[in-house]
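Render TIR domain-containing protein in 3D.
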Amino acid sequence: MAHLLMDSLTRTLLILIVIFLGGIVQKVRVDIPLRSPQINYTCPVTPLHVALCAHLNLTSVPEDLPHDLLVLSIRQNQLTELGNRSFMNYNQLEELNAHHNIIAFIESGTFETLPQLQVVKLDHNLITFLPIYYLQKNALLCIITLSHNKISSISSTFVSTQKGGNFYGWRNMSVVDLSFNKVTTITEDDFLPWRNCSVDKLNVNNNNVTFLQPKAFVHFSKLGILNMNNISLATFDVEYFMDHVKIDRLLIASSGIKYIRPVNMSSMQKENVPLIKELYLNLNILNDIPRYALGGFEKLQVLNLQENHISSINKESFCGLHTLVDLNLSRNRIKSLPRASFACASKLQKVDLSRNNLATLDPQWFDGSWFLRSLIIYQSGIGRIALGPWKAINLQTLVINKNNLGFLNHYTFTGLVNLKTLDVSGNVNSFGMSEDALTSVGSLELLVMSDVGKFTMEGSFRNMQHLINLDMSYSKLKISSIDQFAKASALRVLNMSGSYLKAQDLVDIHTGTSLFSGLVSLQTLKLRHNPLDTLHALPSMFTPLASLVELDLTSCHIRQVASGTFANLTTLLQLRLSENQITNISKDAFQGLHSLRVLQLQYNSIAFIQQGMFMGTNKLEQLYLQNNHISTVASNTLMPSSLIRFNIAYNPLTCDCHLAWFRQWLNEVEGKIDLAPENRIRCSSSSLKALVSQQIWSFHPNEYCRTNIMIIVSACFAPILVLTIGILVYLNRWWINYKLFLLKLAIVGYHEITEDQTPEDYEFQLNLMFHDDDEWWVNDCMKPFLEQRMPHLGRIIFGDADLHPGSFYLNAIYDVIENSHKTILLLSNQSVDDTWYMTKLRMAVEHMNDTKLEKVILIFLEDIDDDHLTYLVRLLLSRNKPYLVWTEDEEGQEVFWAKVQKSMRSNRQMNNVIPI
């Protein structure tokens, strides 16, 4: 019984333990937070609800993307079709980008689930048609691009199954692009679904359209831009755009149009006229413009016929164009025009006849053009202007640059009383102008006559009281007198750059009168690219220009800037002196320029910045000093506090303690001033060793320029040291004098004693001794030298071969040594090892000691180690006997042969005494 009781208690205890542990586990599970699952979509999705699915080789639209997508990009994949279920999950989609796929089929309900759709891009696919009713429920649609597909008919693309379907909801349409397809015809029914809709831009360009039905675009209430460039119309028919078609800009360029077919004006009703504002028929092959060619275009304001083959124009060609303002006939083949060519276009304001074949410009062409304001005829071969008068009296701009005009006289511009701008630049032949040539255009404000070859100023500008801007740059100017601008008081801009002017041409040296006297209103003067190297000698040149704001002296060969050069220029804001050769700037050269904002001194040869150079330029904002030779800046130079940009890059700055203050100044202004490019400010090779080639920011003056205690201590003990040295010198004065005498004798030398005999007194003038292995050098080098430079030496012994025959060998050697003026021994590694050759050397040295004459010359043909040399040779060299070393360097060989020649002149007596 006890046993059973024990088992019951044990089971009860085990059950309680299990229940307790189960509660703990459950509690732990409850306390562990749940993690949201990580979603890996098919393609990346940005926080802005944009799915970027490009370049993934997709064959279908991903279905696992977020339902709140706004933009879906599936471009550049392998999609072949779009089905009714492709976008069912993305009913918030606003933009679909599916270009550059191989889509050929689209189901009818593909876009029905996308009520918010605004942009559809399906270009660069294989679509052959897209019935517009597929998009009839997309009322917010504004951009449709279907370019670069295979659509052959707009009817199959835009006409609904129910003809006459009208999608009034498309009020936001902006762009419809059907370019680069295979459309061949455009009919009135093609755009029927667009009835009463307006489109900002419709592109049907780059199709092979050969047929355009009249009134093809009549269903549009308005077209902003209709682009039909690069189609294949042979004829431009006005009837295409009848029935009140409103088009802001119509482009039919490069379409092979040969003819313009006018409409019958008598049968045209007021409500049928085209309402086109701009028409571009450029880059076609029109040969002529018929009478009333575009009659009925009552709203046309711009007509561009540029780059056709037009050679003739009828005086009634532009009749009916009552609102035409801008006519472009440039780049055609027009040689002449009839009188009053543009009178029918009564409101015409601008005509461009540039790049034609006009030899003469006849003012009568523009009779009746009362509102003509601008006439542009550049590069048309015009050699003369026929006698006027001009009746286009309201003409304000005449551009006849880059022609062949030679001379302008008083009658050239008669009648142009309101002309404001005249451009005759680029007439590079012998160009001339009479003194009264501009008297008939007294209202002229801008005159451009740059690049006209040679031009002599003979007073043509004296009475141009309204002239504001005169450009004579890059013409070879000659100034007849100094009073050319005496009354041109209104002139504000004068450009004489590149005009071959010298400083003395601009100032009368005798009277000091400046060419610029009278230019009291001049604000901009450009003299760049003129040889003004003597500018510093003529300080009164710019004095009359009290209103000058900008002065450009770039690349004028200026070497120095003197004080007073810019005196009286108190209003100057910009001074350009870059790309000159300036080495010296007077410390007060810029004083008085109180208004100066920009100073350009880059690309010069300035080496030093003086302390007061920028004193007085208190408003200077931009200072350019890059690419000079500046090594240091004078201590405590006054840098303008107004600076906002400072450039001193590419200068060889010496980063040492003398520049410490400048480095500290850079620290102070860092962040306040643009130091562009600050990473190009480097320390030169003359800087402290650790800073060479480093950026200047590596220079910390506190580390390199601390107070040197040794210098201070040395300065304290210097007087004591000087006194001590003085006492020692006095006590040892006689010993010092003696040593100085010996040093002088060693340095200055003494009289050299030479032998009384000359080379001619000896049996042999030269004895050349060499080892057999070195014979090549004698033949290749020594003999040519003797033949060319010392031909007078006729008695020469060349080695053993020239010894006396029949004598003993040593006797023969001693004989030639004794009877030779000079003995030359060639030394090489082989000769040093040869016992017989060393015997010859010993015999020559013993003879030299016996005669006390330096008759022996040693020539080393190659490097020989000291350990390899015999004791005799080393002893001889230690006694400063003459020896030469052969070299492979050409310049070194010249020095070698010169020393040989000198050594052959005479024999010095030996002096082995060395002063001690």
